[in-house]
Amino acid sequence: MEKILLLQLIYLTVSATIIGILADESLMSPSKLKMFVDELQNMPKIQGFEVVNGKPSSKKLRIGMFYKKWKFHRDLPPTPVFAYGVSKSTATIPGPTIEALHGVTTYLTWQNHLPAKHILPWDPTIPTAIPKTKSGVPTVVHLHGGIHEAESDGYPDSWFTSGFKETGPTWTKKTYRYPNVQHPGTLWYHDHAMGLTRVNLLAGLIGAYIVRQPDMEEPLGLPRGDEYDRTLVIFDRSFRLDGSIYMNSTGNNPSIHPQWQPEYFGEAIIVNGKAWPRMKVRRRKYRFRIINASNARFFRFFFANDLDFIHLASDTVYHDRPVVIKDILLAPSEIADVVVDFSKSTSDVAILANDAPYPYPTGDPVNQFNGKIMKFVISKDHDFDTSRVPRKLIQYPSPDVSAATMTRYITMYEYTSDIDEPTHLYLNGKSYDEKVTEMPKEGSTEIWNVINLTEDNHPMHIHLGLFAVLDQTEFVDDDVDEFLQCMLKRNDAVKCQISKYARGRRIEVPAHEKGWKNVFKMRPGCVTKILVRFSFIHSNSSYPFDPTAEPGYVYHCHDHYFLN
């Protein structure tokens, strides 16, 4: 019997609030925080395997979520946060980097030690995980980019409170199983609880996870080791004078959603838990695995001294060849794996900067605070560097359109109130509680046409599957509203003659984003055609688990809402 995967429509609300910087007198002005005074942290590492008699073996880990105080900046009072770690004293923002080995299973028990009440405001009028006792902070962990059983995927209704006192309707197990049989690459883990993802991530529940495959990666000769292979987890926050995280507690539609707002933008840019840090580097090559862990902010990274990025991988997957670029546009939850060669710098300082408007792409321009990320201080003497960037990386099968057995149309709708403020956003006009609409077959390849009828660029993430972007086609300006009106009545892209309306400019997919991905930026007023594969890309073997088992998998936008 053919195995059918369940991809359910969900509504999680991953972002939070547009900040009114001047509206709150208790808000810390970013001008009071001097840039580049804190050293960049190298987050603690935890091996997801152990070596027994000279051979790698499975390992059981316990990582907790703790309430503690964290120093984001030298001149900022300690901030109340939620943090991942093996103990409260060692918990960090972001959490420890878990290093797994390809083919060796990691068993991980995520433990909730959080208090009875949240440290940030949350809105119960949106679909939200709410314990019956009204006590405790629901959490569930999703390994973003992982290929594993649904029970270990962090399904939004599989939440649990402190000590597993209360659990969500689809919760089944305490210990997750990550087989790590997928291709090597960079992943990250974060909270995924229904309706609380936005505030749980803002509070600090994020961390990096790397799957290494030495026999494939070491011959490449890329920069390696703790000093030269670094993970950069980047996000934005604003703070009150007392050091606490600032989040506007008044909704943009207060009569409908008293607290919920569709976007959060902070003025301070945080890298590995420090605001605008600095890093001393040698004149040699470094590898940086850059994760955008913001709620809604896009970053367009570039070096003020014109250094290049050598792009190795997008999200979890290596390119077949490196791509040299000057800037990187990274949406929330996207990952860029790059090499930077500081021996090419003509100066002793390199500022990593950002010029992406917010909201992206038509929002406010960056300012002197959110337009800077971090500072690299480069040694004057050249370093002996044995690392290299090869002409060829790892070759995976190219997207094969002829293999597609199904074509789907996924439409993004934004609904507004009488005051023209967004109230919710659905995919295909469906709420989370409605019947599952996407049921692909295990091992299948499908074409999805993602139609963005909103005004914002939305990064869409698919769990379990990988996809390649084929093209993006704009609507002709006058056609968007006409097509939208038809869709609001019929909710059927074919019957509304999508091909008649999507006939504008075709946008070329950037070279460094043409490979296999799990997140992509869905442009507003565009149809983005992707080829989705529900099987491994590095192997013809079947999944070593049943992908059709409950509770299933989800796909969603990773900025305003978790949708699908």
Describe the structure.
With 564 residues, this protein is mainly beta. Helices cover 5% and strands 37% of the residues. The protein is built from four helices and 33 strands. The protein has helices spanning 197-203, 214-217, 477-490, 498-501; strands at 7-9, 45-47, 49-52, 55-70, 79-85, 95-101, 106-112, 141-144, 175-178, 185-191, 206-212, 229-237, 268-271, 274-275, 278-283, 285-292, 299-303, 309-314, 317-325, 327-330, 335-341, 349-354, 372-382, 406-416, 422-427, 445-452, 458-462, 466-474, 506-507, 516-517, 519-522, 526-533, 553-557. The strands form six sheets. A seven-stranded mixed beta sheet has the order 14-13-12-16-21-18-19, with no helix packed on it. Strands 24, 25, 26, 28, 29, 30 and 32 form a seven-stranded mixed beta sheet that branches. Strand 4 and strand 5 (79-85) form a beta hairpin. It is globular, with a radius of gyration of 22 Å. Residues 10-23 have low confidence and may be disordered.
Brief synopsis:
This protein is mostly beta strands and 564 residues long. The chain contains 4 helices and 33 strands.
